[in-house]
Amino acid sequence: MIPDDRVKRKFEKKTWSEVKSKNSWQVFRIMAEFVEGFDLLNELGPSVTLFGSARTKSNSPHYQIAYELGKRLSEEGLSVITGGGPGLMEAANKGAVEGKGISAGIGVELPFEASNNPYLTKDISFRYFFVRKLMFLKYSQAFVALPGGFGTLDELFEALTLAQTGKTPRFPIILVGRDYWQGLVDWLVEVPLKAGTISTGDLDLFRLADSSDEIMEMILTFFNKHRQNMVPNF
């Protein structure tokens, strides 16, 4: 349960004029975040975003896969983007730095979690989650979802929705760890598909993989075919 005092703080009484005044200034802050993000990330070139948990320890097999992917993608001349935090994000950024490539972290201001790891060559943090998420989706041409929690699921389903609706091309979207993701895939088949709220073709928007070799083959097949025409997505 959410503590009552936290709920009360979020619903502190304000007058309509106070809300209107705050909203007007908020527009400028949001615009500034977009401009800052566009200016920095336009320099990346073809990129791959890796999503994953901030809580994963360095002795996890998934940490090693994230590190290997970051390094191998970097060695192929692809920029690596993460949320800039610890755990699997840190692993991918560490690999990218050791692969001598661009290692970007797109963070968000949180009261309970450090937003930056020490393996970033480009680093930016936002106040608003929706601005951060747009930056991932605008500048990446492939998405790798390592095991993660609500944040990873949010980012994953945003990428799937944009591909499903044609707002972005059908980029590779790869779920790493069949043992972790199979339950979700089974649920998609047994509940939304059977209810008719998704179609059979929607299940083709993503692939499952267990090793960096599998993932690199999927990504490089796509990039070798389309790389020379790649630009930011929207």
Structural account:
The chain has helices at 4-10, 16-41, 61-75, 88-98, 129-139, 150-164, 178-195, 212-226; strands spanning 47-51, 79-82, 103-108, 122-126, 143-145, 173-176, 207-209. It has 234 residues and is α/β, with parallel strands linked by helices. The chain has one domain (16-229): Rossmann fold (3-Layer(aba) Sandwich), CATH 3.40.50. A 7-stranded parallel beta sheet has the order 4-3-2-1-5-6-7, with helices on both faces. The longest helix is centred in the N-terminal third of the chain and has 26 residues, at 16-41. The radius of gyration is 19 Å and the shape is globular. The relative contact order is 0.13.
Structure, briefly:
It is built from eight helices and seven strands, in the order H-H-E-H-E-H-E-E-H-E-H-E-H-E-H. The protein is α/β, with parallel strands linked by helices and 234 residues long.
Q: How do the strands and helices of this protein lay out in sequence?
A:
Elements: H1 4-10, H2 16-41, E1 47-51, H3 61-75, E2 79-82, H4 88-98, E3 103-108, E4 122-126, H5 129-139, E5 143-145, H6 150-164, E6 173-176, H7 178-195, E7 207-209, H8 212-226
Parallel strand pairs: 1-2, 1-5, 2-3, 3-4, 5-6, 6-7
Helix pairs in contact: 2-5, 3-4
